[in-house]
Amino acid sequence: MLNIDSLQKGIVIDHIEAGMGMKIYDLLKLDELDCCVALIKNARSSKHGKKDIIKIEGDITIDFEILGFIDPNITIDVIDDGKIVEKKKLVLPEVLTNVIKCKNPRCITSIEEEIDHIFRLCDSEKRRYRCIYCEQEYQA
Amino acid sequence: MKHVIDPLDLSVEEIDNLLNLADDIAANPKKYAKVCEGKKLATLFYEPSTRTRLSFEAAMLNMGGSVLGFSSADSSSASKGESVADTIRVVSGYADICAMRHPKEGAPMRAARYSRIPVINAGDGGHQHPTQTLTDLMTIRRKKHTLGGLTIGLCGDLKFGRTVHSLIKSLARYDGVRFILISPEELRVPDYILEEVIKAKNIPYQEVVDLEEVIGELDILYMTRVQKERFFNEEDYVRLKDSYILTEAKMKKAKPDMAVLHPLPRVNEIALEVDDDPRAAYFEQAQNGVYVRMALMMTLLGVEVC
What is the CATH number of the domain that holds A133? Predict the structure, then answer.
């Protein structure tokens, strides 16, 4: 089995659905960090058979809100001095900007250049979002 | 900067104030003849409209202001590929207020984000049409002296009919309202209006196909046209366009004080014979549209009668 050193200080994004790690890496723009980042694909998981994990070393601030939309089962552990000091709870973000695209052909987003695709949470229980322009629904 | 993109951009109190002002304008038009002197309205109409555009223009001219603009996308810089964001940034330097109609839903909201002048949504695709809603509310209030406690029948194209969506959202804020939604299966009110407006507020409603079955219960009958321009498929339009035709025979089953509204233009959904019925309120409604747009522009421009 591949070994990745334990973190002394940093963040572990765990229980990522296998295959989604790279997408999350891109969404969180981890390529822009100059600290040590490990993306582990297909790690063994007792629950799901396999999973992806991302480990980020150092004292960094990342906006994890988007992960609540991608997969609420993801866990985020903040590590300090080699121990988990905080487990962040994921919630659905109120607003999604350029995460999903409006597919309504009647929406202004279908023709306007450089327009942000913005969705607002309208029902957190049913995980439903609406395009702010045309109110087209998107279910997460 | 206040914009009016969605009818809910205005609170119930703001709507009351607007309707009071519109009523006063209707009663004393001369009092307001110069209130917008020196002000310019830009009418940015990316799709054809007679009534709404002329109503906005008449409203501004009635107040002593002036009007500039275009009446189709072909005669605007949109035909050269200019974005809505760029157009409004330019127009903000030419006019004091703008009314925008656009075939794409959300275009006026996009404009509002870049505008330095108040933007009024004059209809965005099948989505919202707040000034028509204000017109409808003014007409209902003048006919029934209240906006609460009414049974409102909405009939025809309830799927693409933007005036219907806006009116439901607005009336849902008044107590005691009940909706009867009359449409063919294919043109029913979208689920999100049912779920997030009507059901969310526990408003009593019925969905029916037959107008005659319910016409006797209504205080207001709001007729709509099945709009050809909202269909991607001509066959569907042809099949559904004659779903409802209101005739005097059907009016005989209605309450003696029911009011018939229609955002106009009509095609054949209200027979000409109904025009002479005292319950026909749609031409008065079109006239009210001018008063309420005057009131709205006065309010957004922050001008008052001296």
Answer: 2.30.30
Best interface-test mutation with B: which of A103, A117, A128, A135 has the largest number of B CBs within 10 A?
A135
- What tens digit of pLDDT does each residue of B23-45 get? 999 999 999 999 999 999 999 99
Q: Does domain B7-128+287-301 sit in CATH 2.40.37.10?
A: no
Coil, helix or strand at residue B306: coil
In a domain, A3, yes or no: no
Q: How many residues does chain A have?
A: 140
Q: Domain ends where: A70, A88, A106?
A: A88
The per-residue pLDDT for range A76-130, each reduced to its tens digit, is 999 999 899 998 888 899 999 998 999 999 999 999 989 999 999 988 888 889 9
Distance of alpha carbon B19 from alpha carbon A92, whole angstroms: 40
A74 in the same domain as A111 = no
Helix spans in chain B (H) = 12-27, 51-62, 84-91, 107-114, 130-144, 162-171, 191-193, 211-214, 234-240, 248-251, 282-301
Nearest to B83 among A104, A112, A132 (CB): A112
**Rg of chain A (C-alpha set):** 17
CB-CB neighbours of A124 under 10 Å = 13
**DSSP, residue by residue, A60-100:** -----HHHHHH-TT-EEEEEETTEEEEEEPP---SEEESSS
Number of structural domains in chain A:
2
Contact A137 B125 (CB under 8 A): no
Say if CB B178 and CB B205 are below 8 A apart: yes
Name the token pair of B42.
């830009």
ipTM entry: 0.85
Q: Is B196 on the interface with A (CB under 8 A)?
A: yes
Per the CB < 8 A criterion, the answer to whether B97 and B39 are in contact is: yes
How many Å separate Cα B159 from the centre of its chain?
15
Sign of torsion over alpha carbons B184, B182, A106, A98 = negative
* Same domain (yes/no): A28, A60: yes
- Output the six-digit token pair for B182: 């009359």
Class of domain B130-285: alpha beta
What CATH number does residue A17 fall under?
Answer: 3.30.70.140
Q: Is B34 helix (H, G, I), strand (E, B) or coil?
A: coil
- Please tell me the distance from the alpha carbon of residue B167 to that of residue B156, in angstroms, as a whole number: 14
Q: How many CB atoms neighbour CB A29 within 10 A?
A: 10
| Domain residue limits at A56 | 9-88
